[in-house]
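Example for reference:
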Amino acid sequence: MIGIRQSRWGTGPPTRGQTASVGAVSEGWSWAETQPVADAYQAEARRLVAESIVAVRYLNIDYFTDRYRHGEVGPRPVEADEEWLEPTWRHPACDTIDFAVELQTESGRRFTVSWENPGNGEGLGLREIPALGNPFRENIDIAVWDVTQRSGWRDLVGRPVSEVVLHYEPWDDAGALWCNWITVEIGVQRVEFLLAEGQVDKPDAPEPSANNVAVVFRPSGLPAWLTTRAE
């Protein structure tokens, strides 16, 4: 199991049984010991600016492996119409993803939004790397949902990204910073990535989570614990 340290949110260890090979790994994903490190992550994320997103994939736990796998090993593309009737990432307040969101651009570049291991240096990052083979083993048993023409992405694909902002804030008094909120602007519309998840008993807004990614397409849908920073 991954080394467990207390989460910034006080949520303790991951609750879905990830191992070190499935969580977003490696130091140097988003947490920054100094402002120049945070600036470097911001500069990398802004490589997405002026690129047009043409494909979006959600990497989730394969909750229906017994039903849809037949001995295969590795990422499983979700294809069955029956499975699409109730996507595991769908929530009234947001799209809620266990592991990562991969954005592919018209020029063939791939960017991944995912979380750094919970603990003393957790956070949310946007890096120019493919999701598979970097933060996740290429042979890991996960479900890959192509949402390019689904959810809120349907009206955004094919349009150039106008801005990307990693919202950093102090982690401690020593100057370290962390990011739990990323804004991607596409024209006049914003997609908000949060270090959070939708919860069944709380349909109005995502709740903080150290090891999930929430995607919010309506800025008005930002949770109360974040809106004070958004003003």
Q: What stands out?
A: Helices lie at 35-45, 65-68, 81-84, 224-230. Residues 114 and 165 are 15 Å apart (CA to CA). The longest strand covers residues 161-170.
